[in-house]
Amino acid sequence: MVDTRHEYARVADAYLPVALVVFAVVAGATGYCLLRWRARDGQDREASRRHRNAPLEIAYVAALAIVVAALLTLTLHVEGREDATARQPALRVDVTAAQWTWTFAYPGTGVVQEPREGRPTTLVVPAGRAIVFAGRSADVIHDFWVPDVRFQRQLFPGHTEHFDLVFARPGTYQGVCSQFCGLYHQNMHFDVRVVPPAAFARWLGLRRAAPA
Ligand code: CUA
Q1: What is the pTM of this model?
Q2: CB of 147 closer than 8 Å to CB of 108
Q3: Does the CB atom of residue 179 touch ligand 1 within 6 A?
Q4: Residues 6+ away with beta carbon under 8 Å from 135
Q5: Separation CA 177–CA 100 (nearest Å)
Q6: Which amino acid residue places its CA nearest to atom 1 of ligand 1?
Q7: What are the pLDDT digits (tens) for 33-74?
Q8: What percent of the chain has pLDDT over 90?
Q9: Ligand 1 neighbourhood includes 177 CB (under 6 angstroms)
């Protein structure tokens, strides 16, 4: 299973050269036309009245359509891999976003992570494993964003959004709500603590034994 950060980095790597080539072609053609057909001293030429060059325009549209189709296919392919496709997820986590907190529940265990003593909620997950998330909002639209894995997904009221994430390496990452959701939107953070699988199993066992 490829980690989520790598998947999205691959998409970004494909977009950049394509964008650079398109930019070079447009800027080059514009510059060439400006220099080649500029008005010169003593010349009193009228601009062309020809307003249409069908073969050129069809070629232009076809080329752009091919580029867009290729990028769209790649993007949807990767997106599809993130949409809860793991056949045997190591873990399921229910995410609830509400003004202005995050709650992470581990179904079947009774363990629920909530904000404590003014600290943002901590999502604890095992490294290198596929985790299936089921995300909901209790009120308005929020957005689950973990910049380090390049993953962002909107959560709506009255709808459950499923997605898979794989965090490659242990560490602590920041999670953010990236959809303006009211007065304290800017405080709506969470922490992601990624630990080795054995440490995760220990943590879950301790949390079950001694609910906070
Ligand atoms: Cu929730 Cu912004």
Answers
A1: 0.75
A2: no
A3: yes
A4: 94, 95, 96, 97, 144, 153, 155, 160, 161, 162, 163
A5: 9
A6: 142
A7: 999 888 777 777 777 777 788 888 999 899 989 999 999 998
A8: 55
A9: yes
